[in-house]
Amino acid sequence: MQLRQLRYILAVAECGSINSASQRLYVSQSSVSIAIQEVERELNITIFNRSNRGIELTGDGVEFIGYAREVIGQTDRMLNHYQAKKETPLARLSVSAQHYPLAMQAFLDIVDIFNEGCEFTYRETYTSEVIDDVKSFRSDLGIIYLGSANRSYITKLLETSHMEFESLFRAKPHVIVSPMHPLAEESKLEVKQLAKYPRFVYDQGRESSVYYAEEPLSNLPCTSRIAVSDYNTLLQLLTRGRGYTIGSGALPNFAGNSTASVPLETDEVMNVGYITRVDRKMSVQSHQFLQLFARRIADYGEYEGILVPSKKVFELLDWQSDE
After folding, report:
1. Which residue of 92, 252, 285, 311 has the smallest Cβ count within 10 Å?
2. DSSP codes joined into one string, 83-115
3. Is the distance from CB of 130 to CB of 122 less than 8 angstroms?
């Protein structure tokens, strides 16, 4: 079945006759008739009833026309989209990420650079969707973390999906609390000190498991476990309650919110980086975003001493586009 055949049949349905449709399409009546017959034969249906009174749709024909309109509509939208892209090319970038303020700030930085003529997307979402977005080409990059609980599982998943992980920084887990929290003044914390407080985590949807958790040490005992889906809600909970969350400690004073970050005594290490498809060439915009992210990481590591930037960060800082 060809798009040309669908367009011929739609024209006949709209014009009410093969003759009128052929005139609109600037083709012969026989070409239109043959197109109808070929589709009817391929699908084993009758699309039109022909009589002395003219031509009309059958029940199967009405159903077929509905599908045909969807196919032609989607095709026309795709053609228009890429024609417009050819005439006025846009800078494009799509990033899916777990919840990292430094990555969010890097995205804001690149939007400031490309303040027009761009089509950029930043999705803070479930870990499973970050991976699926990159796998399905919905996103150019994904930002996730690997730790002892998920490293083996996620690494195998990436390999079987033709993706790879590149480390950007490592950090010891920190307990994140309100500056007014009883634990905020501690110089360091032991795991057992957390058991009497509520814990805030990021919701992982249907794929919720230790492998997809954004926070290390996900099975620690706590008085209650409250799951949220966005960064601002987490900050509000930290400000208002006696709860805590565990993260890399890289929580800058973003959008006027303040938190306290206390190192946790544990052998666990958070390895935060980005994932890409191995069979997809990285765009200039992706490189530029990662360079801005690397700058944020290097600055935070230098001034706060919480993060240990990877070798890749310094490679990115030296990167220059050939375009």
Report:
1. 311
2. HHHHHS--EEEEEEESS-HHHHHHHHHHHHHT-
3. no
Q: Identify the pLDDT of residue 215.
A: 92
Which structure tokens are listed for 170?
A: 């490592």
* CA-to-CA dists, residue 254 to 19, 180, 199, 211, 233, angstroms: 67, 18, 21, 28, 13
- In contact, 36 and 47? CB cutoff 8 Å: yes
Q: Choose between 251 and 138: higher pLDDT.
A: 138
Which CATH entry fits the domain spanning 3-87: 3.40.1280.10, 1.10.10.10, 3.90.480.20, 2.120.10.30? 1.10.10.10
Cα four-point dihedral sign 56, 59, 64, 65: positive
Q: What is the tens place of the pLDDT at every residue in 263-277?
A: 999 999 999 999 999
- List C-alpha distances in Å: 197 to 223, 260, 316: 6, 16, 40
Q: What average pLDDT does this structure show over 224-232? A: 91
Give CA–CA dist 144/154, Å, rounded.
10
What's the CATH architecture for 92-317?
Answer: 3-Layer(aba) Sandwich (3.40)
Judged by DSSP in three states, 29 sits in helix
Domains of the chain by residue range: 3-87, 92-317
Tokens standing for residue 87: 């005439």
User: Are the beta carbons of 78 and 88 closer than 8 angstroms?
Assistant: no
Helix/strand/coil percent split, the chain, to 5: 45, 20, 35
118-140 burial code (b ≥16 CB/10 A, e <16): eebebebbbbbbbbbbbbeeebb
Residue 32's alpha-carbon distances to 18, 56, 67, in angstroms, are 7, 15, 19
Q: What is the pLDDT of residues 162-188, one digit of tens each?
A: 999 999 999 999 999 998 899 999 999
